[in-house]
Amino acid sequence: MRPRTWVLLLAALFALMQLATVEGRDTPDSKNYVSYALSLTGADEREAAAATIDHYCAGRAAMAHRAQLVDVVRFHAPDPAPRVLEECREQEWRQVEARLAAGDTGGRTVPFMPERFMRIFEVRPGYPLVLAPFVALLGVTWGVWTAGVLITCAGGVLAYLVLRTLAAPVPLALTGMALYLVLPCGTTAMRPMTEGLMLALTLAALWGCALVLGGTRPRAGLALVGGALFALFTVKHSQALFLGACLAAAGVAVAVRRRWRWRGTPAGRGPVALATVGCAGVLGTVLVSRLLDYPSVSESVQDLLTDHFARPDRERPWAEFFQLQGNFWMEWARRQLWEPLFLAALAAGALGARRRPAFGVFLAAAACTGILNQAGHPDINIWGDRLITLAWLLPVLGVPLLLEPVLRRAVVPAQGAPVEPVG
Known about the structure:
Elements: H1 3-18, H2 30-40, H3 45-69, H4 81-101, H5 115-122, H6 126-165, H7 170-182, H8 184-189, H9 195-214, H10 218-235, H11 237-261, H12 269-291, H13 297-305, H14 317-338, H15 341-353, H16 357-375, H17 393-402, H18 404-410
């Protein structure tokens, strides 16, 4: 079969597998994005609140039903789903009604939380804009599910395109797509949150880096990197800042290494151009976020330390934040050493990335944005380690490159047949 057929088959298989869990993927923050999307479709505040609460509570009820079926003590008890659904609706409506009565009716999101917390989501229109046409056409439940499948499959296709641009054989490019779908990237991207778009846009930026470094279509590559950074700003502006800074650092590192290794000869325009685009992304993010009065870093730290502004602001937030950082990474390292799959995957990805040294630096830089994202929210109990998921892009793209010599030794070409270059 043609490669595109295999790509479509992988995407279709992934979509079929996701039918096993249509409801119950939401996190508490998902309510904010869903209500934002509904407001973009023209729903008023109460209509958006009703549809969002029904969707969220139906997911909670579905999870309670599935958990009860396998509870060794209560599996024969009555189904808890109706009770959980009713209690959830009552609790959510009580909070929303109180805030609506207090006049908290500004913005696109339903006031599920205090206004200072909701402001964080008001400045992230990117994901709701993508979600809005799906919920308008298919309703909330199937619209959210369909959008998740398409966003996740788009990320897998981008992983395939990056590897093909790096001259990886088709089977290894398909392996990269499969890894993206089955590793935590796919699981996290299916949640109604911003991470799916963040992963896809980061892969789009890496595709642009591969095009520039390969010299095939440098202008298109630079435009792709710039467009990805702009789109990331609308999805989550802190991620645009992280990615721009990391790409700029990677470009400088590659340029300096080439100049030093080749004893003063020019390092080539590609790394320098990518560093310039990264710096422009950082500068643009900082300037525009200040002009639009986006929540500051200090506000984010207060949000973390006050349990989403449920407690008074901390007087010494940065001292407490850095103390929490130390505690968090010690506990994180202990858990990773206990179950070292993530560390092993990162090591394998790093070894594979060395087969494309220049691109490998940019890949490692993009993966570092996951570490930075997690460092900004040192909460050990956050949903499924989703903040650090971007670091999984290193094994997604690096492991197929690591397997390249194995594939080339296993597939012996016929005499006289051309062999695809390593690149």
